[in-house]
Write a structure and sequence with these properties.
The protein has one domain. Helix content is about 60%, strand content about 15%. The chain is globular, with a radius of gyration of 20 Å. The N and C termini lie far apart (about 50 Å).
């Protein structure tokens, strides 16, 4: 089975994203979840409908964690290996592997870099996060219904 691809337009460039294989996806999701875990403690009970103050409270713990930079660099390197940059340079159509030009391509374009990284994460990990949400949705129901097994004591 071939890995899926998707094109995303950001500014003047098109980015052709290629899906991660299963092992890479699980490793990336685990690193991302661990990096964001401190922020989930600040998440209000009503979820992601955040006021600006709540958004700062949500992001601030993760930004204080020095491991976050390592995780972001890991994700950038991982997804850059699976991204082709398509556009025109001096009127000539070009297609380049992002991993070869990552630092120069996004120099002083951090907003585009974040948009690309978010698009890559959404494309590569959306089904994994949906699966986790599906499993999590079963937990309260299972606990409420009880397992039906008797305690050994």
């Amino acid at each position: 089975m071939a890995l899926k691809q998707q094109q995303v337009q950001i500014g003047a460039w098109s980015y052709e994203l290629t899906q991660l294989d299963a092992r890479q996806g699980i490793r990336a999701a685990a690193r991302l979840a661990n990096a964001l875990a401190p922020s989930f403690k600040a998440l209000p009970a009503d979820g992601f409908k955040l006021t600006p103050e709540q958004a700062v409270a949500f992001v601030e713990p993760a930004l204080r964690d020095p491991a976050l930079a390592d995780t972001l660099l890991y994700l950038c390197d991982l997804f850059a290996e699976r991204t082709a940059v398509i556009g025109e340079k001096e009127g000539v159509p070009t297609r380049m592997q992002l991993s070869r030009i990552l630092d120069q391509h996004f120099a002083d374009s951090y907003d585009d870099m974040i948009l690309w990284l978010v698009a890559s994460i959404k494309f590569a990990l959306a089904s994994l996060f949906r699966s986790v949400q599906g499993i999590a949705a079963l937990v309260p129901r299972t606990e409420a219904q009880g397992s039906g097994s008797k305690s050994p004591t």
